[in-house]
Amino acid sequence: IEGRPDPGPGNHPNASHLTINGNYFQTMHIPLLSGRTFDQRDTKESALVAMVNEAFVRTFFPGESAIGKHILLDHGAKKEKPLPIEIVGVVGSTRHESLAIAPIPEFYIPFAQDPDRRMDLVLRTSVAGLSGLQNAVRNVIHEIDPDIYVPKLQPVEHLITGTLSQPRFNMIVLGCFAGVAMILAAIGIYGVIAYSVAQRTKEIGIRMALGAQRTDMLQMVLRQSFSVVAIGLAIGLFAALALTRLMASLLYGVSAHDFSIYALVLFVLSFAALVASYLPARRAMNIDPMVALRYE
After folding, report:
1. CA 228, CA 235: separation in Å to the nearest integer?
2. Whether the model pTM is above 0.70
3. Which residues contact 31 (CB under 8 A, 6 or more apart)?
4. Angle, helices 214-243/201-209, rounded to nearest 10 degrees
5. Is 183 in the same domain as 224?
6. Could you give the angle at which helices 214-243 and 259-286 cross, rounded to 10 degrees?
7. In 3-state terms, what secondary structure has residue 193?
């Protein structure tokens, strides 16, 4: 960066370099945050210019404007003396490598000042289907140069799907295991609580023989059962909140702490505990106290 001390070989700031045409940002709907985009003024003979993304500004110009600043492009093994490149615009950050990777510092150079033999053509169209568009694009390019090879067009959705295929598969597998674990947990809670309440049938008979009301006994059983379940749910909830950060890298566009999922799990397990407590307790309430006293 011009005007700053040279950090020495191997310590220069790193940023991704893209050569583009001036209409690239409009086509990709990348917003212009400040400054200007490339236009007819930016030719091979004019002063070198560049545009940077928001991540570039946050990394190398925190708290200040990057417009008008100059960067020096290191040519690596080439012995060319780097020329100052003026930053004329700032655009929004994008994810070129993967949706799972945070935006990195990037700067853009106009094609007129840095022509490249290999370029990617980006199209935005309202035409449905790619067959007709493929032929139209190939004809237009062949009119310019018949020797240019035009590969098969690929929708951006396919590229995004490709980057998400492995994380999506991992999430499906984890989701299946999580669903099975929740079902097993619900069955386990039901079995333990139902057995515990059934073991108290004799106690319930004694209390009812001494004058306890059925509704009071039912409330007591539910309250005591849910006190144990509530402790377990609280421990599980805090453990889940602490461990979900381990799977945050598999998520995109959603938070690792999705409270709707927590609410669903709490509801399912609480409902299992309610059914497990209510059914055996109701059976115990409906039998004769003398029979309950002889229950083994």
Report:
1. 11
2. no
3. 25, 91, 92
4. 140
5. yes
6. 160
7. helix
In single-letter form, the type of residue at position 271 comes to: F
266-276 pLDDT, tens digit per residue, is 888 888 878 87
| 295 has pLDDT over 60 | no
Top-confidence range, 32-46, 106-120, 180-194, 210-224: 32-46
Instruction: Give dist(CA 85, CA 47) in Å, integer.
Output: 8
Residue 7 inside a domain? The answer is: no
How far, in Å, are 180, 183, 184, 192, 268 from residue 188 at the CA level? 12, 8, 6, 6, 12
Q: Are residues 164 and 86 in the same domain?
A: no
- Domain match, 105 and 219 both: no
Q: What is the mean pLDDT of the chain?
A: 80
The residue whose two tokens read 């998520």 is 251
Q: Are 93 and 15 in contact (CB under 8 A)?
A: no
* CB 102 within 8 Å of CB 35: no
Residue 250 domain-assigned (yes or no): yes
